Amino acid sequence: MKLGPVKLKPVVAAFLVVWLTVLSLGSTAVMAADSTYPSNTLGLNVKAAILIDADTGQVLYAVNADEPRPPASMTKMMTEYMVLEAISKKEITWDTQVTVSEEAASTPADGSQVYLAQGDVHTVKELYTAMAVASANDATIALASFLGGSEQGFVAKMNEKAKEMGLKTAVFTSATGLLDTTLMSASDVAKMARMILQQHPEFLDYSSIPSQKFRARDTHPMINNDWMLANNKGIPAFKPYVYDGVDGMKTGYLGAAGYCFTGTVKQGDTRLISVVMGTRSKGARFTETAKLYNYAFQSLEKKTAVQAKSVVKTVESVKLSKGVSTSVPVVTESDMSLMVKKGATPDVTLVASKVPASGELVAPVKQGQKLGTVTYRYKDAETGATMDKTVNLIAAEDVDKASWWRLMFRGIKDFIVSLFNGIVNLF
Fold this sequence. Notes:
The protein is an alpha+beta fold and about 425 residues long. The protein has 10 helices and 16 strands. The protein folds into 2 domains: about 270 residues, Beta-lactamase, CATH 3.40.710; about 100 residues, Peptidoglycan synthesis regulatory factor (PBP3), Domain 2 (Sandwich). It has a 5-stranded antiparallel β-sheet, with helices on both faces. A 5-stranded antiparallel β-sheet has the order 11-12-16-15-14, with no helix packed on it. A two-stranded antiparallel ribbon has the order 3-4. Strand 1 and strand 2 form a beta hairpin. Helix 5 packs across helix 6.
């Protein structure tokens, strides 16, 4: 069941104003770590940051993006991903009943929680919503211990999954991110976020909820810490931070991490994913993120470097056995589009191609059938980052299987040509 935005009543809106005021009391607190920031052209006050295109993974901007740092509650995105994966594999459902463990009920009270008691029973959906909206540590541990036998059992699975996903810097020591021994680079956080959106887009149905009650009897709703959500545009207290098109993903804070935020925004046909780590305050993580989004939407545009259904000069056809033709023409299945400076033309280089060797492809072949791949490389003049994009090659037309009569005469012809060439080579 898809959850839509919750319509806030006046009393809830009033509560939000009070809540934000309380939060703002600490919004100017500088983190204990060194407050100097790496130099960068956008003037970002961050310890690390990255901005990528969600469709291609292209790096659009980066500051210290490969340094492992504590991600704080952004860690919960991996927990959320693994719950969604378990649902997709039908290991659990949204309606699966979870009995709250002692481990979850004893979660320290100094962080966000929904005050679960041991033995409470809630559905996966209820606990997941609490994790996604309120960043509830107890709900997160309840799900982790349910799926892994214990939080640490689940953490072991998190580290296994990180290796599968190719997250080179990721070291998980908790399901919540409460321990500063959990480490990830901004680059890996963005990579993880992109995989979530590609494989489980329903993630956004939950991360975009601005507020919702956990229990019907609760006096106040859970409040999403993502102040940038477009769904917050009607709330005056969030007006300085709301950004059109933002619908996720996850905030985080630890003394050792500073204020962090993984965000995503979609405008038109462009979706971006951003990560900022080590900002000074609750609000700063959003204002620094806005600088990244403004840079992309104001300075960059999407251009097509390789057209769909285009012929690759070095791989125009593939050899074919037992067909009415001895080869089949191939074209690109899809295009290759890139974000570049407005007015610029993306320059890409063909670096690899892979097609069946002679004799491997046998007729018949259908138009649109995948027959190989080509890989292009793009180097961003601004960031210096390179990106490889592999595009499928497909058959441009049908090629039927040849009759035995045609194949016999073709064989005779090939034999005569081979014999003649052999004789010529004697002289």
